[in-house]
Amino acid sequence: MRVLLINPFYPISETPSPPLGLACLAGALRAAGIGVELLDFVVTPYSPSRLEAAIVGFQPQVVGVTSVTMNFFDALRVVEAVKELDGRIVTVLGGPHVTFCGPQTLTQYPAVDVVVRGEGEDTIVDLVRAIGQGKPLQRVRGIVMRSGGAIRITSERPFIEDLDRLPPPARDLIPLGRYRTLGLPISMTTSRGCPFRCIFCVGRKMVGAAIRYRRPRAVVDELAYLNSLDFHQINLADDLFTANRRHCLAVCDEILRRDLVVSWTSFARVDTVSKELLGRMKAAGCHTVSFGIESGSPDMLKRIKKGITLDQVLAAARCCSEVGITAQASFILGLPGETPQSLQQTLAFGQRLKEMGVQHGFHLLAPFPGTEIREQAERFDIRILTDDWSRYHANRAVAETAAVNRQTLDDIAIGWENEFLQWLGEIKRRMDCGTASADERWQLVKLEHTVRLYDLMMGGHLESRGHWLQERMRADNGGVEALAERLPRSPGVSCQAMAATLQYALERRSLKQLYRNGEIRWEWIDFLGIAPKRFSGNASGAGVHPSSSAP
């Protein structure tokens, strides 16, 4: 059996990271002796011909596609294209969106054969084996399927209790080099589960209320491996890394015991941190902690079952400042019962945190499938405006309250965006005048490099124009300057500016130049190293996985 896993398009503006969930599924399939490959359309351009080449070349019997609500339609486009190429392929959708609207998905979209609900490692292996052996899919727990003209939901699959029994994520199948080139972070988890009941979140339903922990030594094995890949940032993507003080300290102590120099971030709640805990995290390499605050209104915090107070927020911010950790605070506008007064409370509290050195940002409420706020919208005074899932990116209103309408929320969001553009414009003005600081100049230059590199990647320009015949290799006619002359540029971008961007990528080991049979060829460095054999808790090196094309 062979399985092709696909990561559909997701905008870079949302700061994507290499698809950890798909890598975990690929690792589980590989460990079960099932051939697996991965296509990533977040950092490579989607086209029917590219998809067809993968299908024809790999000949999968199963194609699995993940998605969140925002890119559900992108995932669906891929699934439908797969069915058009080969109707015999079994198409599988997974992720938080379809977990909570599986029957509706199968009813509305005939190209989808199966939906995997919740955690997928055990389910995907059982599903692929059943397909390969011709067994009834009704016996596979944790899926939604068609049977006899009806949609059937099979029995629940329990959450995986022992996370350490899972094989490592097969990150070697992901074009990590492209994510690194674009300055995007890489992520990992040390636990699964969330005990809290926030009405706007599906985390508890997706991963369970009871938190399951990995062994600290195995966690730090993986952290050390990711550190060797030279990403600028590693995110510990647990819903709540600080939920269990003992686990958090044990991971930090293991990092310190090994003298591992690594830079990482985490998520936390303000009522689960202390100066001592944050100090140990800082010593172990944590530089930023993100807190979900959601609102500056005490009444609103009670209404959404957040379970924190503004005094706890201020205390956590002070502790971060005292130990030298950057605190980030996120807010959601348009929550149940939102009024002009509660909006002003939130904006004012955000400004107060900013004056304390806390970075903060706002999103607009997106009532995702599976959330209590969507399932009981009328009770919560929420009017859902659209089910166009592509609009569920939380940057424009898709819901409103009786007292705060869509336009009010959109005006605030547009105002933030304009402030950011004005900030960039001011830096550009100071650069032109020679008064910008080195840090300001670098922030703008780095952003310009990222935009150009992303355009080159998603346009496939290096592949189509980054090679030419040449009698012999010389630096003056085969270097980045010569490449820049051949690549398309946006209006206002000079050949020299493009060459500087290519030199930046070359120095970051993102590009490689080949000379073979009289041809100069430039290529992206997509794949980085090899994946560790198993994060077993041993601090020894990495091993080579079995071939991904196993029968």
Query: Could you tell me the strand content as a percent range?
Result: 15-25%
User: Biggest sheet: strands side by side, in what order?
Assistant: 2-1-3-4-5-6-7
Instruction: Tell me the major beta sheet.
Output: 7 strands, mixed
What's the total count of β strands? 20
State the end-to-end distance: 6 Å
At the fold tier of CATH, the topology name of the largest domain is TIM Barrel
Question: What coarse outline follows from CA principal-axis ratios?
Answer: globular
Helical fraction equals 40-55%
Q: Please identify which CATH superfamily of the largest domain we are dealing with.
A: Aldolase class I
CATH architectural group of the largest domain: Alpha-Beta Barrel
- Helices, by number, come to 21
Rounded mean pLDDT score = 93
Question: Rg from C-alpha positions?
Answer: 24 Å
Give the low-pLDDT segments: 538-551
Structural class: alpha/beta
Number of domains as seen in the coordinates:
3
What is the CATH C level class of the largest domain, in words? Alpha Beta
Describe the structure.
This protein has three domains: 152 residues, Rossmann fold, CATH 3.40.50.280; 240 residues, Alpha-Beta Barrel (TIM Barrel), CATH 3.20.20; 87 residues, no CATH class. Helix 1 packs across helix 6, helix 2 packs across helix 3 and helix 9 packs across helix 10. It has a seven-stranded mixed sheet with strand order 2-1-3-4-5-6-7, with helices on both faces. A six-stranded parallel sheet has the order 8-11-12-13-14-15. It has 551 residues and is an alpha/beta fold.
